[in-house]
TrEMBL record:
Residues 25-49, 623-649 are annotated as: Disordered. CDD domains: DEXXQc_Upf1-like, SF1_C_Upf1. Transmembrane segments: none annotated. The keyword Hydrolase applies. This is TM0106 family RecB-like putative nuclease. It comes from Amycolatopsis eburnea.
Amino acid sequence: MVTPADLADLLECEHRSLLHQAWTAGLPGAPRPADPATPGDEPAGDAEATREAIRAGAPVIPGAVLRDGDFSARVDSLVRTADGRYEVHDAQPVRHATPAAVVRLTACADALGDVAGPDVHLGLSDGTTRTLRVDDFRPLVHRLRARLRDRKPRLPVPLWADERPACAGCGFARHCASAREADRDLSLVAGMRGDQRRKLTAAGLGSIDALAAAGPGDRPRDLSVTAFETLRAQAALQVRQDTTGEISYEVVGPDELAALPAPAPGDVFVDLAGDPHALAGEGLEYLFGAVTEDGDRRFTAFWAHSRAQEKRAFEEFVDFAAARVAEHPGSHVYHYAPYEVTAIKRLAAVHGTREETVDHLLRSGAVVDLHAVVRKALRVSQRSYSIRHLEPLYQPGARTKTAVSDVDEYEEYLAFDRSGEPERADEVLRRIAEDTEDDCVSALRLFGFLHRVRADAGIDGPEPAEESAEDALLRAAEEDVAAERRAERAAALAALVEPLLEGLPDDPADFTADDRARALLAASVGYHRRETNPAWWEYFRQLAAPLGDLEVDTACAVPVALEAGEWVPPAGRVRTAKRTLQLACDPDRPHPFAPGDEVRLRYGDTARDGKVVAASAVELTVEESSPPDATTNDRPTAVLPGSPVRPSPKDEAVAELARLTVETLPELPRHPGIDLLRRTPPRLRWGAALPAPGDDLVATVIDAVEEMDGSTLAVQGPPGAGKTYLAGRLIARLVRAGRTVAVTSNSHKAVENVLSAAKKNAPDLPCAKRAKRTPDPAAPWEQPKSNPALVKWREEHDTGHLVGGTAWTFANAAIREEPFDFMIIDEAGQFALADALAVSVCAKNVLLLGDPQQLPQVVQGTHPAGAEASALGHLIGEADIMPPELGYFLDETRRMHPAVCAPVSELSYAGRLHSHPSAAERSIEGVEAGLYLAEADHTGNTTRSVEEAAVVTSIVADLHGRAWTDHGTTRPLTDADIVVVAPYNLQARTVSRALEEAGFPGVRVGTVDRFQGQEAPVVLTTMTSSSAVDLPRGLDFLLSRNRLNVALSRAQALAILVCSPRLVEADIRTVEQMRLVAGMIGLLTAARPWPAG
């Protein structure tokens, strides 16, 4: 019999599952687990008793036993729902919902069959309950059961597996660790990535000893010289320690040691402790620890056990550190590893406090990560660069406790606190404080050790800058002015935010609709700064980061080879010298750049400007610029993103809405932006209700919009549902009636698409839009050169007009002076909520058009909960389709054949999207319309698969020239009728090359971002990766339901998934990842096998 524990084993680690099955079957050579207990089958009599209780309609069935074929399980209880079905309730409290717990509950619910309700319920240790939809995870459970059913006992080869999170509670963990050690696997090398390990193993360097003995000629071609030499030297140093038993180090970055700041009286050494499971899984930073040493060593602890306390502790901690840095010039805040900086940036954003102070500390370089210093300055013979592995170098007595145990200890404290045992709870906090103090002291001693290493190596520290008395006064004055400006900005922010937040409950769960709107508006006031700050923080991080970190940074490119041309001196109006760089990149780490992108070229800790002039799959051509007197023959080591776009005046427009709101508190103003925040049903003239969808849904929407009375209405338009057609008809009708209409979106292209639809309906419609750069003589609208010119144009066309522009246009103060009657936000599922608020001050009514189930909004910063949402995503919430009280769902697509629409509808639209009858008239000769699966067997691929490219080419060749019938017209399929969607640019280029060589150069190939809004009779989606493990952009990106929706919904008749049979083999670590994998399995199960027969 299969048990829930067997399913959890297979989900968490197939290797563990195989070993357990082999040991249970008594196979020779099977290792014995540390916990050999095997759960027995549940008694058949108990299962029958459960069935009898269900038939009798018992309201609660405690200790229910379920049997379904080869599956058997006991659950805490079954609870009868109002409609007579039963749902599984697990009352044994756990800290948070884990994939293992969810697969267990889902399997039990699935075993109930037809009497199962839609949900399962998991009790948490904080007294709350997590409710989950069974259908979200059912396909994964079916797959796990099928794999166990068909699998015979065997021993895996090798007999050990790589380390993973599931090892923490695994009875075979010690076996695998000792076997890895015995085999001298490359995973033992500090800093070794999975893709590097694969390349080295393929080159015959499969052990740490082989790598240590390798020479320059052994380097794999697709591994950079820097990476190879770094890993080879690391392996050699570790082998030496394995031989001698002595820890050692080498200085590899003298410049980094030279730049290490001198000790100062105000130095602070910090460590933060957090529990990701606290507060119902939202997480809590419960301790901010700081050690100072000016005279006496002192540990200061800032504790927090609630969200409100977290905010207060964070403020006190930041104020403490900032005051010491300000009081003692030259002082710094030191920490080890990126966690602390990540946490303080997140907390400043989430709580909307101390953002200016944190930004100043980070930009001024006052915060120093000693982990980055060590990685760039030293090579250490340990297998890990965690601070506890370094401690033998500078302090006696190694510590063995891990960071995970800190989380466990805090959970133990929470349990004692809930059970009313204060003394035991206090004892746990005392131990946690001691551990945190030890971490801070360890960082302090490491700092001293690095200075001793610098002195022993004869490396001079930074020369104190010579400064005259006049220069010192000038610098002090500039610093005072900068501090005064920061204080002014903080005060202006507080004047808007504090009144909005005053009097709100500490727990957001207690918010009313008005409370939530006030909190979201307060968060939106700082949204644009928070979106821009990370780009600047990343700028400094990328300049300081080790090259190894940049190799895995998907925003950067580290070349494996580089050729530099000669500098060309400036001439004519050109003020800078220029040269051309040819860069070759790692084919497994595709660069993110495209022709025209502005970039920065890194030289040590400085950078120069550049512009991408050409880009291929693995090559970049960059034009570098430099002042004529600053040119050198050095070669850049990395390509970094260009400078961020400044958000002004969008932030000013949001602040205006906040001021308007503060003036009316405690009441909220009647305003479309506020209605959006409150999720208020659209307000129509005369108090009328929103019309119910009729036979002509487009006409119903137009009628509703015409009756809007200073409010917001939303329309969700899935692919092919006629959203742009609706916009064109609506705008024509409004302008003809003398109304003024604005259209905005995330891109000029999207705006112009709507303007074109409007002009198609009303060619004589007065229309204007400022050009993106230079005016387009073919544009069918007027193109004022400036905002004042646009204002004048509006005055001249005062009997109704249409204006297009981005959020920057409509947030401009001059444009806001005369609000439009209607603001239409297209692609509102990708349009930031804060941007919608910014443009709402320029309108009397707001109409949101879009689909949050397609490509998600791109968010760079960290924001308070809810502020990161798109405008339409905020309204739709957790639902798949628009709530009827807030707007309309266009439920009919004219694009997708019903056989294509059905799986897309189930994936993203709760089964509510259906095809127009005319879509069923489309056909391709010899192939039934629908979703197909074409498998390509491969292993080890991440961002490129020549195997899948070959399958794609074969399918294109098979379909090319077949008769395509669309609404009665028949013709042969051509290149232009086929689209290939890839998740990565590198795969798109690989497929393009294969198709060109096969004679199909006109087939459109690209990522989903390129094809949103497009369609084709045939769409092939190449998933590329061999499995959902070790992915450069993560499982969440590859299996994103939004991205899969966009890819499949381009198809009019045929949607073909091309993938590895092991694609859904994933290292699932979260419930959301489990949901994504289950969704992909559902698609694969629904697909028919290709070739169609």
